[in-house]
Amino acid sequence: MDERIDDGTVADGEREAITVLGLGAMGTALAGTLLARGHPTTVCNRTPERADALVAVGARRAAAVADAVAASSLTIACVVDDAAVHELLDRAGDAFRRGVLVNLTNGTPAQARRAAERAADLGVAGYVDGGIMAVPSMMGTPDALVLYSGSREAFAVHRHALESLGATRYLGADPGLASLYDLALLSGMYGMFAGALHAIALVGSERVPAASLTELLLPWLEAMTSGLPSLAEQVDTGDHSSESPLAMQAAALANIVDASRAQGISPELMLPIQRLVERAVAAGHGADDLSSLVGLVAGSGRTPVAVED
Ligand SMILES: NC(=O)c1ccc[n+]([C@@H]2O[C@H](COP(=O)([O-])OP(=O)(O)OC[C@H]3O[C@@H](n4cnc5c(N)ncnc54)[C@H](OP(=O)(O)O)[C@@H]3O)[C@@H](O)[C@H]2O)c1
Q1: Is a pLDDT exceeding 80 seen at residue 253?
Q2: Can you give the C-alpha Rg of the chain in angstroms?
Q3: Does pLDDT of 150 surpass 90?
Q4: Residue ranges lining ligand 1, Cβ < 6 Å
Q5: C-beta separation of 122 from 96 below 8 A
Q6: Global model pTM greater than 0.85
Q7: DSSP sequence for 242-308
């Protein structure tokens, strides 16, 4: 049975009242940021003690999800995964009626679309999905980018409050778009870190400290990633002409894999890109730029989607 919120359910002051469901590392950072910005903040977590520190600095604790949701017209959910989101929806019941749900839990586009449907069935006034492109300590700073998509009206009404969390980007009415972009940006990050980890292991095979390499690696990666806009233009125009063609790059990648094995380093982080480049060369793309690899992985699934501000 639902229990009452510790000290009332009504927002006061100029800032909008907000409920945060989920107080892991990220949910705690979100709630702490909202409190610091002056938002009356209600918090609720499966393990209630995780709210103690926030309550000590002014958060209102709700023991039950339904009470937490009823306390604010805007609820932000940030839990471990999609299954946990649905558990929260189960426990909220019809408490979401009239309220807006912003789901900042990492997930897939399909999960976001299903959650939007489920939220609509529960009477949620507006469902917005989001992706947090930041770590907890960055929240509330301009470097914390949060992607949103879903109900345009709900986002517009609560935009000002959401801007407390960091830089804000609304991508469109399809609730799956924020997840799509989130996973795309994470893919870029993981690809970069895969290469960096391999690089550190490779020089480490000769006892070179990681810090000695990163001093060189960072400016190198910055120089190479500065070419991303022209790579994107090549993908969009289909003009893959290159001063660094794939046939040349295939030889370098083979050297990386061979040298890694010779140094006793597993090439597993580099093998996927090496195999893809070899496949591209075998398919007649040896004179093309790296940009042409997008066509090999995308198949017919690449449909450009306009991004909204
Ligand atoms: N941490 C980061 O650097 C970071 C960065 C960007 C995005 N994110 C995203 O933020 C979300 C939360 O991440 P986190 O770092 O806060 O994770 P976390 O520290 O592991 O916390 C997980 C949260 O989910 C709750 N939870 C787990 N299972 C649940 C269930 N069945 N029902 C209700 N609540 C449940 C946990 O409650 P209990 O306390 O009771 O276990 C806890 O509040 C994830 O989607 C993550 O991808 C995290």
Answers
A1: yes
A2: 23
A3: yes
A4: 22-27, 45-47, 50, 78-80, 84, 87-88, 105-106, 132, 135-136
A5: yes
A6: yes
A7: -SS-HHHHHHHHHHHHHHHHHTT---TTTHHHHHHHHHHIIIIITTB-GGGHHHHHHTT-----PPP
